[in-house]
Amino acid sequence: MRATHSPRGMCVNKRVMYERKISSTVFLQVLRRYFTLQRISEETNIPISLVSRYATGKVLPSDKHLHNIEQLYKKKSLIHHVLRDYLDTSIRGVSAYRLNTDPEAIVFVSLLLIKHLEEEGIQPDYIDYVMVPESGGIPLGVFFSYQTCSRLIIAKRRRNILWQKYVAGLGGSHDSLREYYIPLSEEYRGAKVMILDDITIDGGTIESLYDIAEKAGMKICCSYVVYALGARWRERVPEIRPLLTLNM
Prior knowledge:
CATH class of the largest domain: Alpha Beta
Largest sheet: 5 strands, parallel
Strand order of the largest sheet: 4-3-7-8-9
Structural class: alpha/beta
Radius of gyration: 20 Å
Number of domains: 2
CATH architecture of the largest domain: 3-Layer(aba) Sandwich
Number of helices: 10
Number of strands: 9
Strand content: 15-25%
Order of helices and strands: HHHHHEEHHEHEEEEHEHE
Helix content: 40-55%
């Protein structure tokens, strides 16, 4: 019998393909800030004239060229160069402020995270929730949850509503203890959660989010950070998967 495809299914597939192509143009726009058209053309086997048109958004990539562009996600030398430039270092410390305030960079990192999940055999729609700490993790968490159609949980440093029941999580060492809270909800029990943050040094914040998820009865499917600095975090939360590890 001849196979048939529902109009709704075909429409969804076209939408997904369209969004992938749109995202690939943003990905190229970020790479274009750091590399010449010639370099990108060599890495993708796409003519320079087309790379230029794709990177400016004048035209969307063909299906074949989309595949070539998405292979760039695996080019660690290119990816690490871009990520390293978005990390701010000064005498006051280390910050991902530039990353968190650049919409194109947030799209760039979100696409990297999705590719990493797929390589681990985790489909983005498998995740029910994305949990991030307030402040630095929010910009990336908002866009990533949108991209994966998962719900966002923001763990906060204080309980804002006194009569609300909360789940509290502790992490860090005695001299640098961190406590985060999320509202108590039965919806969390058994739900699959991904923990996400921009930077970790000692793993204390991620550890507190792990504590929250376990107390809430959630299933932790993975945890990611954009930047992991040093090696102290490995002692506390070795499960963290960093996009870029730096010895500082």
